[in-house]
Amino acid sequence: MSSVLAVFCRGAIKVKVYAYDVSRGKEGCCLPGYPKHIHKEFPSVTKESSLPSHLDAVYYSYTDRSMYFFKGIYYWHNVAFNPLDRRRTNKVKGPWLISSKWYDICDVEV
């Protein structure tokens, strides 16, 4: 499998995750076993740390080499994610207040 992979989430009620092999161009979607329900692809460490429905954003930090999920004023961290892991191991933990990790983000009314 290629090390170049793009993952997309889509859906209003049942969020699905689509994995795409970028190196294969138009033929790259979807990888075997996809689409998957978001909770199957990103299982939680505990029941309390399960991802919410209708995420606002997902962010990959090149600095931390980590993936983060956002909803409202909270974030979840994919603690098992490693970009070099060909098996794409995922385990989500959270929620925490966004301001507890990113101090320099201004508060804005949404």
UniProtKB/TrEMBL annotation:
Superkingdom of origin: Eukaryota
UniProt Hemopexin repeat ranges: 52-105
Cross-referenced PROSITE patterns: HEMOPEXIN_2
Name of the protein in question: Uncharacterized protein
Organism for this UniProt entry: Araneus ventricosus (Orbweaver spider)
